[in-house]
C-alpha cells in the first residue's frame, strides 16, 4: 500500500495536488484500492486505505516528535538514539521531511 501511495504522492498530497482534479484523485485512490485488494485477503475501500495511510503517517510523525523532544531535554548521559525506521517508515519519513 505504501509503495502505491508513494508512487502517486505528488498528485495526492504533494507538489502537484493543486493541479490534480477531484476526479483524477478519485481515480488514483481507486487504482490504489484495486492493487491493495489484489494482494490482500480482506477487501478494502478508499476510506480504509486513506485511514491506514493517515495512521502510518501519524506513527512516523510521532516517532520523530518523541526523538526531537528527547534531544531537547537537559541532563547528562549519552544523547538519545535516533528512531529506527522500517523500510516503509523511512520512505514515509522522506516524504514528510524532504
From TrEMBL:
Q: Which domain of life is it from?
A: Eukaryota
- According to the entry, every stretch annotated as the Myb/SANT-like DNA-binding domain falls at 2-63
A GO cellular component annotation here is: nucleus
Per the record, which residues fall in region Disordered?
Answer: 70-89
User: InterPro entries under this entry?
Assistant: Myb_DNA-bind_5
* Name of the protein described by the UniProt record: Myb/SANT-like DNA-binding domain-containing protein
Amino acid at each position: 500500500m505504501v509503495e502505491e501511495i508513494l508512487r502517486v504522492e505528488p498528485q495526492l498530497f504533494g507538489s502537484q495536488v493543486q493541479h490534480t482534479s477531484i476526479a483524477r484523485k478519485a481515480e488514483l485512490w481507486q487504482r490504489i484500492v484495486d492493487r491493495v485488494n489484489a494482494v490482500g485477503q480482506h477487501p478494502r475501500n478508499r476510506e480504509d486505505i486513506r485511514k491506514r495511510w493517515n495512521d502510518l503517517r501519524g506513527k512516523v510523525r510521532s516517532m520523530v516528535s518523541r526523538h526531537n523532544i528527547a534531544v531537547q531535554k537537559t541532563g547528562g548521559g549519552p544523547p538519545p538514539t535516533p528512531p529506527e525506521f522500517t523500510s516503509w517508515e523511512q520512505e514515509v519519513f522522506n516524504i514528510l521531511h524532504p
